[in-house]
Amino acid sequence: MGDTGCVHFAAYVKEYGYDSFSVVHAYFSACINKEARRRKALSCLCYKCGSSGPQLYSCLHCIYFACKGSHINEHYKHTKHFMALELCYGMLYCYQCRDFIYHSKCQTIAERHLRCEARSLDKSLSWRPWSPSRLEIDLLLKNPKRRHVTALTSIGLRGLLNLGSTCFMNCIVQALIHTPLLRDYFLAELHECTTKTAAKCLVCEVSRLFQEFYSGARGPLSLHRLLHLIWNHARHLAGYEQQDAHEFFIATLDVLHRHCKISMTELAANAAAAAAAAAAAAASEKSKSSQPNAHQQSSQNQHAGSNYHSQQAGSQQEGSQQLPQSGPNPSPLSTTVSPATTGTTTATSATNSGQNQPPDPNPSQCNCIIDQIFTGGLQSDVVCQACKGVSTTIDPFWDISLDLGESSNGQGGYGGPPKSLIDCLERFTRAEHLGSSAKIKCNTCNSYQESTKQLSMRTLPIVASFHLKRFEHSSLIDKKISTFISFPAELDMTPFMSQKKSDQQQQQQSPSSPNFAGGGANGSSVSSMTGTPGLVTASSGLPNDDTGSDTADFRYSLYAVINHVGTLDAGHYTAYVRHQKDIWVKCDDHIITTATLKQVLDSEGYLLFYHKKILEYE
Description:
Blueprint: H1 7-16, H2 19-29, H3 34-43, E1 56-59, E2 65-67, H4 70-79, E3 83-86, E4 91-94, E5 99-101, H5 104-121, H6 134-142, H7 167-177, H8 180-187, H9 202-213, H10 224-233, H11 245-290, H12 294-304, H13 308-322, H14 347-353, H15 369-374, E6 376-384, E7 390-397, E8 400-403, H16 421-429, E9 432-433, E10 440-442, E11 447-449, E12 451-459, E13 463-469, E14 471-473, E15 478-480, E16 490-492, H17 498-508, E17 555-566, E18 571-580, E19 583-588, E20 591-595, H18 597-601, E21 607-612
Parallel strand pairs: 8-13
Antiparallel strand pairs: 1-2, 1-3, 3-4, 4-5, 6-7, 6-12, 9-12, 10-11, 13-21, 14-15, 16-17, 17-18, 17-21, 18-19, 19-20
Helix pairs in contact: 2-3, 2-5, 7-11
């Protein structure tokens, strides 16, 4: 069966055409407008039992709705009407073939209806499986040879030559190459370079590296061009000495982000200029074709000149009566305070607004592939200990740096050094009493007050990268912390989300408990984040915030680990990457060897890369 359905549907189309399918799909499957939704709610019921589902079929020969199973089968047996439309997913069903069928023209009609439905409901399009375009079909037909990928394939694995203390760069490149969504983006050739010379574009060089890695060749690669570009765009990394892998990772993301952002801006500007030029040309052509000849124009002017001004005045008055108002004035209370300009959203402004809008976790975020994959939002709540007012700041982040040293206060369960990644995250997100030496000015009290500060994850990126701060630099001595920190293969970040933290504190707080109990690790109680009853904080009352959604999934899977062996002065970087499901390899410059998950989890760990297990479709 091809893309034209079956022979029975071809006979149906020859007799009835596509009108029946189009009308039924538009009004009872996709529901392209408000009227369609009203009609479906009133009349889309099973004619046999009166039920509205869970799965209804509509006969395309007559007006008949029936439930899946015996009711629609009974209608077919009595009428021999063999074509039906499943209304939940809009799929064609042929009773003579006893199977669902696919028809390209019907699919085109259905997609047009789904776009109308999305515009009518002001929502994004529902997820649809990928289907090749005509150009992609032609390319597949011209290149029939396919590479068979097995579990033991080496495609995607290439060693990287050490150019002289460049192991830090090799490890970061291996981690980026094995980032699934980044791989899909570059292998799909979605980057459009606007730079006059592609040799100066770092994104083009990374795209070339992906092509090299997945070309099937096995020889090691040299990253001299990438290194030169990084030197040009991040001058602090230029030189032949050993660099920090974490610093190189952040610098690489920053340069890629800037280049992608420039390309997107230039492409948008070029598209807008082309559209404006096309519109101007069309308007000029239209005005030329609509101009009357000189004699007709002179005659018209003589007849119409006397009452021209009165007609214009009348038309303007009529137009002003017909023009609708531009809508109600936008409420100033719905304006979100941008952290990029003010840095904070105070509890006072949130209280005055009544309906608090969720702050943008990354107001400067563009839509480039780097931000889509690596950018998250870190929420910081500072609570005044006098009035319990909350000041909330949300800052974008690409990775999270976690301390491994002794806690500043030895009280409680986390006084000593952490032993696992979970310990580090719990210490990172627990409430901290800032003390009398770090008082802040409270806008409500209008004076400097002691406060507590707590960090939490407002939004999480697709790739969560954690930096274990093993290198300690001080005025007295520089040293490396070699403490073993265990990390899991599967990580659940739900306990560290902003909404989860707020819910836990609301459960722990009671009316009789003191506002500042001093029972935490830093002498503070996490319940201080909630504040007094009736206070609307910057993280409360957010029905549309995905951090509090029951359907959001914050589970992550480990896919890359970068290790540092040796001392601060004489060390070497290696990387473990997940090549395929349950298949790990160790990358030591140009040497690639297989590894086990146990070896990965037993390694020291310097940079940890986790990928989200379930991606929410927006």
